Amino acid sequence: MRIGAHVRQDTDPVGAGERLGADLVQLFLTDPQKWDPPQPHPQADRIRESPLDVVVHSSYVINVASLNNRLRIPSRKAVADQAAAAADIGAIGLVVHGGHVRDGDDPAAGIANWRKLFERQQDAGGFGVPILVENTAGGDFAMARRLDAIARLWDAIGEFGAGFCLDTCHAWAGGEDLVGLVDRIRTITGRIDLVHLNNSRDPFDSARDRHANLTSGTIDPGMLVAVAAAADAPVVLETPADGVAEDLAYLRDALGHR
């Protein structure tokens, strides 16, 4: 199991990972709150040559599921562009939030839009890196909040080799019990490719996405360790930066990794 953390876009990601003693790092390749296309990373060669694994997180503005053409069409392009940029630095995957449709829209149409993303890109030769769909914390019309919705989504995209990223804060805030969750997800998707191991500042089923450090949130830290162990997949901490080094040390000790 490789364990690491999200690092700031404007830092040297390899250096940041080395200072943390991480096995992998996650980063953005463009401003996550904007539609700016990714530019060639100034340290691409160093990233490619590093023994650290790299995961890229896509922009938050992306919503592949949307029925609004002005949002869905640029979202498709952004996924393709950011996947290509991720491939250029040798990333092991691109994390993309499941997205949502608006209140009153048919969720089945959002799922169909996800399938179209994979169909169109398959015709264009693929993404270059695995697309890791991440579960989300809130929204009654979300594509990947609850397990029944994830099952419907996987029925549409699983055949294209879509990967899955399990975020523990999102699952907790989204109303999914973490006990046995890894097995329930694997029953649906057949896989967990990445874990975002985060505690939550808010209570169960709050629909609020606010991460906390591993030992300071509303989730029992032992439960988080159990999820990481059961998933047996690469782990990225997206916890508050001032405590991430302590989180890494805690997790390694709890898992018996030295």
Q: Secondary structure elements and their pairing?
A:
Elements: E1 3-6, H1 13-20, E2 24-27, H2 44-49, E3 53-57, H3 69-88, E4 94-97, H4 107-123, E5 131-134, H5 147-157, E6 163-167, H6 168-173, H7 181-189, E7 194-196, E8 199-200, E9 211-212, H8 221-231, E10 235-237, H9 244-255
Helix pairs in contact: 4-5, 5-7
Describe the structure.
It is a single chain. The chain is of the alpha/beta class. The protein has one domain (3-255): TIM Barrel, CATH 3.20.20. 39% of the residues lie in helices and 14% in strands. The protein has helices spanning 13-20, 44-49, 69-88, 107-123, 147-157, 168-173, 181-189, 221-231, 244-255, and strands spanning 3-6, 24-27, 53-57, 94-97, 131-134, 163-167, 194-196, 199-200, 211-212, 235-237. The strands form two sheets. An eight-stranded parallel beta barrel has the order 1-2-3-4-5-6-7-10. It has a two-stranded antiparallel sheet with strand order 8-9. Helix 4 packs parallel to helix 5 (147-157) and helix 5 (147-157) runs parallel beside helix 7. It is globular, with a radius of gyration of 17 Å. The protein starts with a strand and ends with a helix.
